[in-house]
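User: Quick sanity check before I run a bigger batch. Here is a single chain. Can you write out its predicted 3D structure?
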Amino acid sequence: MKKKLALGISLSLLFIYLSFFKLDFKSLFAGDIAGGFFGNPRLDVKGIIEALKIAQYIYMIAIVLLIYLGWWIRAWRWQIFISPVAKVKARPAFSALMIGYLGNTVLPLRIGEFMRAFVVSKHTKAPMSTALATVVIERVLDVMMLLLALGFSIIFFPNIPDWLRTGGYSTFIMFGLLTVFLLLLFFQRQRAMKLAEFFLGILPQKIKNKTLEMIGSFAEGLEIFRRSEHYLLVLIWTVVMWGLYIFIIRVSFNLLNLLDPAHPEIYNAPLTACLVMLTITSLGIAIPSAPGAVGTYHGITLLGMSLFNIPGDIAMSYALLMHVSNFIPMIIIGGYCMMREGIKLTDMSKMAQKAEDPIP
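Assistant: Done. Predicted structure follows.
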């Protein structure tokens, strides 16, 4: 865990540096180390402070409330996912969700997903592996929605970076293969397991067996879809939730008056701008980072804003405000839920260590 934490912190520091400075190779080759690394700033700290002074903080309150609503919608949707194997009330589902978010925020390895399953297993008779399988299914569905947003971004936004466009096409291919396997796993589980066993044959036996075990647990989470009445409910909550995410981005543009004609790229196509920013920031959060996505979130947001020719000082101010709006309430509510459930940070650390231990 220490190595992965060190990697995350290193990447965060790299993103922070690249957000504020440009490397000057001529100065480096000339022997001017300080000038090469810090002589060519991208951002003006005074400009960031001035932008924060004129921000419309009333919209920040609205954003926090909308994000809070989004967490409840996600909890309600998860109730549907886990209902075939356990009946979970809304409050424990919400607590588990927020503890999971806190775990993902302060610890590496996505330990929050394990904590989320652990809390639910405390309140029900469902095995932790089965609860975890429903979390994985939920994440797969969210990846599908993210890919849909990425697809619309690629189609409707001509200035999308080549690396993101190429990555998007590659992701679509992988997504297609994953979809075929999931369908096979749902309708022909034995054949899917044999196929997985064949392709995993190149791995060491212990890793192969553990992976097959995980796929089997994942297949259990698919059982929800054998009850047809859940299809519509899951679809409705998913569309509502992602529609809310887009609306949050739309509201956030008002923080620094980005919907003004002075910013024509956003003013003329606000929906496209929302999709692009939602896609880029969602992909950026997945990058390993220091706790709280410090640095990586800001750097990725800065990149996204640069596509719309937003000045760096304003873009960084926007990133700071959105980071606070997302992560501070998450940490406070997650911490409260963790105390209410009697869970300590040491419990999270032990689970992180257990998740990282070599396969027996």
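The two ends are 18 Å apart (CA to CA).

User: Great, the batch can go ahead then.
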